[in-house]
Automatic annotation (TrEMBL):
Pfam families: DUF4266. InterPro entries: DUF4266 (IPR025362). It comes from Nitrosomonas communis. This is DUF4266 domain-containing protein. Residues 25-74 form the DUF4266 domain.
């Protein structure tokens, strides 16, 4: 009996915590969410350059290049 009671309480708490993430964002607050620093990738150009340098230094083929680097860090 106690196990079923615990499972029911756990399910209720889980659903309440899941629903707490669904909130209405007011129109004047949406500007804060649209800022560039809130993006998943705030600096896409810098990330692409870092991925290129990492791929060439590791001598591994990356998704952005057709072949692997020489391992010396050359471009």
């Amino acid at each position: 009996m106690k196990v079923t009671h615990f499972v029911v309480i756990f399910a209720i708490l889980l659903s309440v915590s899941g629903l707490s993430g669904c909130v209405h964002v007011a129109a004047w607050e949406r500007g804060n969410l649209a800022k560039p620093e809130m993006a998943l990738e705030p600096n896409p150009l810098q990330s692409a350059i870092q991925a290129h340098v990492y791929g060439s230094r590791e001598a591994a083929a990356s998704i952005n290049s057709s072949g692997g680097g020489g391992g010396c860090g050359c471009f």
